[in-house]
Design brief:
This protein is of the alpha/beta class. The longest helix has 25 residues. 48% of the residues lie in helices and 16% in strands.
Amino acid sequence: MGHKIVLIGAGSAMFGLGALGDIFKSRALTGSTVVLYDINLEAVRKVEGIVRNYLAGVELDYTVTVALTLEKALDGADFCIISIEVGDRYKLWEQDWHIPQQFGINQVYGENGGPGGVFHALRIIPPIIEICEQICRYCPECLVFNLSNPLTTINMAILARYPQLRVVGVCHEIAAVIEHLPKLLGRPFKDLQTVSGGLNHFSILLKAKYADSGEDAYTDIRCKAIEYYGRLPEHGLFVEFFRLFGYLPVTTDSHFSEYIHWAQGVADHKGIFDFYRSYKRSCLQQQDRVRRLRTGTAPQEYWRVVPIIEGIVTDSGHEELAVNVPNNGLISVLPENIVVEVPARVDSQGVHPQQIGELPPGFAALLANRVGCITLTVEAALTASKTLALQALLVEPTVNSMHAAEKTFAAICSYQQEYLGYLK
């Protein structure tokens, strides 16, 4: 029996074609209907055309349609995957990133943390809340996956407004652990058992052991990590954090540095900038995605959403390395309502997060520094409060000047009036 899977934001070639590439490789989801929805009808029609050309040349039992309204897209959906931005993503992102720097705030990247992360969340939360209102109306029992950043803040906002919704945040950053640990240890990843936890883009590898012997693998990691990671771009802060705190971050400098007030002096800024330019170019040039879809070489397990859906459909009982869900005691140092990133087991009943409990005290303190900013940003967006939005900046760990915060806030609100004008 097929399922109805809705992709919201499907006009993005990276998200739309990437997610469809994974779905088409799934045997468990054969017979499903995939509904594409985007406020940019021209963009989603382009994706639809590419997909129809692809399906015409292969034998796959999938139905792909475009919905002209969100109501029609959602009606009767089993799974809903959200990945959206507003406006000119890169123009706005670069404002988020560089305007705070102009006023002297030591922000390294500015997508998810720092002042940039606050403004990004304030833009994205209102349309996400509108989408979730419609989900509650037309498919309240569906499982919602949010891929939109800043993921932690957005998921908290969704659950604060609609606590009855089943919402899971999914991010691909944990892939760095899968990519590098086998190279570091000379063992395939299937030979390792790992546990990571924290906040999205701000998690660490807490435990690692060899599956066959049960021996601690962190002993070998600690012997080899600095030499191995020290040769890689975007690992300046990464290496220093490992040296000082004794645990591996699960992501690289671009994201990890967003949350640490002393990151400016040690992050690999050139590596971050090179990554951003490469990422922007890749997102804006859809030809490679098209080619990889047509040749059947599109990357498997796009943001791990499809494997989770497969696990629910097949009652797999498999483990996911990272999902983002309400804390509810999973990490003892953090408030109950904060959205945390932890491993989980997946079966026919859904996604079951794994309790982490205590964290290393140094890292726990860094996470605790983030709570006030996230909470205030959510409240500011949900109540349209300019006062709370400014307070969110003033408690953000990377902000060290009241005047810089006020000037940054005024400048960004001026440039982004179309998206932040709702704040009063």
